[in-house]
């Protein structure tokens, strides 16, 4: 679905500060791919490059990020570099950035933000019908209709985060990029939201890339895992294999820093809640 080939990404117009250094990685159809690594290792930068968001001064210095999708309406293959991904936002790719409060407009009610953010075609059946579809969809996330009438500050952090996940999933994109979607939340709420994301992925059979520094989260829900260290991917592979046989010292340290692996892998966890 996405091929990242030897990509070097950084910031700056006059100078260039490297944040991601010669990374190659594939995002496959129908998988949950985890990206782990310490703060500043380049995880968010890699996500922005994969999303094709160059608004932060981000620049791909060398290498390529290419997407391979299928147009849901025509069935035609779409093959594009990340500089053209803006056209694929919503339909094919959606993004849940870090920090719900910084993403949601504090001065605007949720309803307006959700509806205004959707592509025009979603509004073709009329605003009322769309609103009802959103209400039904939010119900699946344990969110009641009155959430739509609220301003972001009137919701808890967990509710805001669920709203963001719901918006990202509503139009059934083929790829959802989630950058630390639950980091600021307590573990109970975190678990609920992650389960929701796993359930969406299993239902929509799309791809979810989950950035988290929490190896426990990766152990529980990801199929494959890439470990970043100082701008590079130091190892990548099936999550179970990386936990069973970590190759890199940094990965070994990350795993050793976990207090105890007491969780179950996603199939069991989701099964319990099905
Ligand atoms: N908008 C920006 N302008 C300039 N430099 C940036 C910008 N965003 C990130 N960087 C730099 O790029 C490097 C990688 O940052 P990035 O946010 O991608 O790491 P991260 O692994 O996601 O960290 P965290 O876990 O703290 O979010 C860091 O040195 C950071 O200072």
UniProtKB/TrEMBL annotation:
Keywords: ATP-binding, Nucleotide-binding, Transport. SMART domains: AAA. InterPro entries: AAA+_ATPase, ABC_transporter-like_ATP-bd, ABC_transporter-like_CS, Oligopep_ABC_C, P-loop_NTPase. Residues 2-255 form the ABC transporter domain. It is a peripheral membrane protein. It comes from the Bacteria. One of its GO terms (molecular function) is ATP binding. It is found in: Cell inner membrane. Pfam families: ABC_tran (PF00005), oligo_HPY (PF08352). Its main location: membrane. Belongs to the ABC transporter superfamily. This is ABC transporter ATP-binding protein.
């Amino acid at each position: 679905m996405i091929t990242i080939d030897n990509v070097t990404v950084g910031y700056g117009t006059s100078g260039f500060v490297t944040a991601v250094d010669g990374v190659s990685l594939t995002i496959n159809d129908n998988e949950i791919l985890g990206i782990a690594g310490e703060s500043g290792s380049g995880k968010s930068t890699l996500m922005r490059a994969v999303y094709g968001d160059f608004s932060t001064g981000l620049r791909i210095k060398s290498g390529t990020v290419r997407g391979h999708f299928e147009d849901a309406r025509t069935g035609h293959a779409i093959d594009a570099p990340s500089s053209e991904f803006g056209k694929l936002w919503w339909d094919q790719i959606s993004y849940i950035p870090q920090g719900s409060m910084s993403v949601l407009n504090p001065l605007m009610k949720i309803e307006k933000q959700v509806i205004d953010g959707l592509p025009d075609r979603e509004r073709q059946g009329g605003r009322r019908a769309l609103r009802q579809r959103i209400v039904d969809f939010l119900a699946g996330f344990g969110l009641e209709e009155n959430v739509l009438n609220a301003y972001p500050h009137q919701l808890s952090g967990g509710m805001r985060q669920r709203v963001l996940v719901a918006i990202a999933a509503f139009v059934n994109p083929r790829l959802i990029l989630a950058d630390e979607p639950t980091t600021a939340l307590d573990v109970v709420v975190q678990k609920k939201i992650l389960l929701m994301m796993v359930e969406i992925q299993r239902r929509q059979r799309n791809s979810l890339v989950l950035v988290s520094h929490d190896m426990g989260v990766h152990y529980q829900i990801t199929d494959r895992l890439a470990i970043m260290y100082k701008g590079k991917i130091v190892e990548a592979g099936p999550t179970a294999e990386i936990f069973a046989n970590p190759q890199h010292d940094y990965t070994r340290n990350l795993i050793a820093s976990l207090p105890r692996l007491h969780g179950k892998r996603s199939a069991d966890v989701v099964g319990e809640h099905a």
